[in-house]
Amino acid sequence: MIRYAARRLIGAVPLILGIATLIFLILNIAPGDPASYLISPGMSQEVVERIRVDFGLDQPLHVRYLQWMAAVLTGDLGHSFSHGMPVAGVLLAALPPTLALSGIALALAFAAGVFLGVTQAVRQHSALDSTLTVLALFFYSMPSFWLALMLMLVFSYMAASVWQLPFWLPASGMVGPSHDSLSMMGRLGDRVAHLVLPVTTLTLVLTAGIARFVRGSMLEVIRQDFVRTARAKGLPEGSVIWRHALRNGLVPVVTLVGLYLPILFSGTVFIEEVFAWPGMGRAIVGAIQARDYPLVMGGALMFSALVVVGNLLADLLYAAVDPRVRRHE
Amino acid sequence: MSRRGRRRDRALGLVLPGLPQLLAGRWAAGFALATWMGFAALVVWRRDRVVDALSGPWDLRLAVVTAIAGLAGAWLWGTREAGRASGEGEVRWSPMVGTFLERRLAVAGMAALGAICLVALLAPLLAPFDPGAQGDLVRERFLAPSLDHPLGTDNLARDVLSRLLYGARISLTVGLLAVAISVTLGTGLGAVAGYLGGRTDAVIMRFVDVVISVPRLVLLITIVAVFEPGILVIVVVLGFTLWPSTARLVRGEVLSLREQEFIVAARALGLPRRRILARHIIPNALGPVIVAATLGMGNTIVLEAGLSFLGLGVQAPLASWGAMVDAGRANLLGAWWISTFPGLAIVGTVLAFNLVGEGLRDALDPRHPE
Q1: What are the respective helix, strand and coil percentages of chain A, to the nearest 5?
Q2: Residue of A251 and B239 predicted with greater confidence
Q3: Residue A41's Cα: distance from chain center in Å?
Q4: CB A251 within 8 A of CB A314
Q5: Strand partners, A86
Q6: pLDDT tens string B163-213
Q7: Quick one: pLDDT at residue B81?
């Protein structure tokens, strides 16, 4: 197991370097000068030159490439001029909110997806099954940014000003304006309230796909002999499904976690943008609008690194639950 | 039936094709009749624009041609049905088509797709207003849905329904072109990688691994950031970010096909590699690709809308559904209709593609459960 883990870990390094190369090429091969957005027509030649030197744009392409790769390896990703601080600092500050949002949503989505998928598989072809299938496809087809706006409209704006309910959900940020003056429990409640809408949106969009996958996986397992054996020896149906069948049905679902990470983070970018959530998605969208290329490069690299690390964890988890994997490799 | 009655029926059938059969209790003919009447009503209702089309812009001319083709098609269908006794000349479809048609949801999705394509083509005839025309900014901004503006007006006093109808073109065109790029690249490179193996395979698949590890939206916004956003850039970039998953899929198919007897036989016959790939391997690997491409259409349409929502996609005068959702954000409570309806249009279109994709999977991929 340790040898398998070590091999996977070493395999991830060239992948990260490849991603860093891809990001560099995208931002440096494109026509036009990254500095041109900072240069206004009235600037003197001297100032223009200094900007170009500051960004290292006076260097030839291969030198810049080596500088960038060295920066990636040392973790020094350059200076973000829209934030006026190092890129690594901006990203590290934005990482915890993103991880909190996407982690909670992923956990909830898998819990709900497994429960719904198993329920559907057990009652295949029932009215409940077909209703849930259609419902899942409906949410699967929904753009997350639009669902976010609709939930915001109903549970925040309309609840507060149209129906004048005593309680409504906050629509932006991580904490309310009066957060610091609240008691300990009040602060916790404030944070949870701010999490509800973004997490719900993300969970709804993700659950649909997971439920569909779990349903298919469980349908294959339920037909197998060991399930019939479990029934034959008189185990209660609940135990057959949730203990014996589910354990085997979940094995392929573990790989799904890895496959879902890119989708999850794409969704997170939209959710953070709509709910003004101070995470990496909002940072990268802001960086693009400000033409802050160092931050764009760093943010894209960070998101990809999260995917690679997540995939690695999913692979290791897969090897842990299914010994056949480590033996074959 | 008397000869007079039959002649009367035939005359009636020329004006209202399908009506005689419908009266005789055959429902299918009623569909031809409804289509014919729908197109006829549209042409009569928008007769001014139909006349203008002779010297009008190309998209209006295309819409009129579509309407006339629809009229002619429905008429031929309805009248041809008239001469046919029930059961005669029934087409025998392949079992795949049968499987697809058994899935009611897939058929509904197909019908919805047809309707959406028609809307995109007919937009210049259907739309009540010019999608780009701003109304009176003082009195016509943020008008709630009414008879004049069925879906209300937006922040620039433009008619939301008209923009919605025109937006269908952007979504469908961008989706179709991007998926075409990705299917071509992905099938070609995936098949080459799988069939040749060795170093070629390693190089292509490592590149695929790299591209797939970057979340697609992050990759998209990074690329779009360095180019001036525009519809061509969006299409190319969406295609470029989708092809690696197609390549992975095709490679898997090719790896299992490569070892099968008919390919071994082709090789033993001394057929050139290019011919084996193009004539024997790729056509047999296409089933899953078609399914993935259909599902990819939905995904791509959502992403195009997302880019436009972030202001990085299709630019201002063009009406994109994503940009319309964004336009309603600033006044969500006061004018909910600006964001709500374009979003519903996205959901409907993407759902239709996904339903068709699911149906195709059941029909084309016998290994898939159920």
Answers
A1: 80, 0, 20
A2: B239
A3: 40
A4: no
A5: A79
A6: 999 999 999 999 999 999 999 999 999 999 999 888 999 999 999 999 988
A7: 63
Q: Identify which of B210, B218, B311 has the shortest CB distance to residue A18.
A: B210
C-alpha B243/C-alpha A269 separation (Å) is 22
Quote the pLDDT of residue B361.
85
Using pLDDT thresholds of 50, 70 and 90, give the confidence band for residue B8.
confident
Closest C-alpha to B219, from A192, A266, A228: A266
DSSP secondary structure string, A288-327? Answer: HHTT-HHHHHHHHHHHHHHHHHHHHHHHHHHHHH-HHHHH
pLDDT (0 to 100) of residue A41? 65
Find, in chain A, the residue whose alpha carbon is nearest to that of B227. A30
DSSP string, B138-176: TTSTTPPS-SSSTT-B-TTS-BHHHHHHHHHHHHHHHHH
* Mean pLDDT, all residues of chain B: 85
Instruction: pLDDT band for B370, please (50, 70, 90 cuts).
Output: very low
Q: How many helices (DSSP H) and strands (DSSP E) are in chain B?
A: 16, 0
- State which amino acid sits at residue B223: I
A41 and B CB contact within 8 Å: no
Taking the CA of residue B55 and the nearest CA in chain A, the distance in Å comes to 40
Using CB atoms within 10 Å of the CB of residue A61, give its burial: 0 to 12 exposed, 13 to 18 middle, 19+ buried: exposed
**Is A308 part of the contact surface with chain B (CB cutoff 8 Å)?**
yes
Task: Give B214→chain A minimum CA distance, Å.
Answer: 5
Closest CA to A168 of A158, A179, A177, A159: A159
The pLDDT score that the predictor gives to residue A195 is 93
Global pTM? Answer: 0.88
* Segment holding B120, helix H or strand E: helix B104-126
How far apart are the C-alpha atoms of B293 and B183, rounded to whole Å?
7
Reported as a single tens digit per residue, the pLDDT across B12-46 is: 777 788 777 777 777 777 788 888 888 888 888 88
Helical packing angle, A184-222 and A144-152, nearest 10°? 140
pLDDT at A327: 62
Residue A276 · residue A241 · CB < 8 Å: no
Task: Give the chain A residue nearest B295 (alpha carbons).
Answer: A141
Out of B41-45, B94-98, B357-361, pick the least confident: B94-98
**Quick one: pLDDT at residue B311?**
86
H or E, element range at B229 = none
CA triplet A212, A213, A217: central angle to 5 degrees? 120
Whole-Å CA distances, B218 to A264, A282, A307, B306, B324: 11, 11, 12, 11, 22
Q: Which residue among A270, A293, A308 sits closest to B306, beta carbon to beta carbon?
A: A270
Which of residues 133 through 152 in chain A touch B, CB cutoff 8 A? 134, 137-138, 140-143, 145-147, 149-150, 152
SS3 A38: coil
Other CB atoms within 10 A of residue B113 CB? 18
Q: What is the pLDDT of residue B135?
A: 77
Q: How many CB atoms lie within 10 A of CB B13?
A: 21
Residue in chain A closest to B308 (alpha carbons) equals A145
- Tell me which residue of A219, A267, A266, A271 sits closest to A245, measured CA to CA: A219
Least confident of A249-253, B91-95, B125-129: B91-95
Structure tokens at A213: 């996958």
Helix and strand element counts for chain A (H, E): 14, 2
Q: Dig out the tokens for A314 from the structure.
A: 């999913």
- A180-200: pLDDT as tens digits: 888 888 888 888 999 999 999
Query: Cα–Cα distance between B80 and B32 in angstroms, integer?
Result: 11
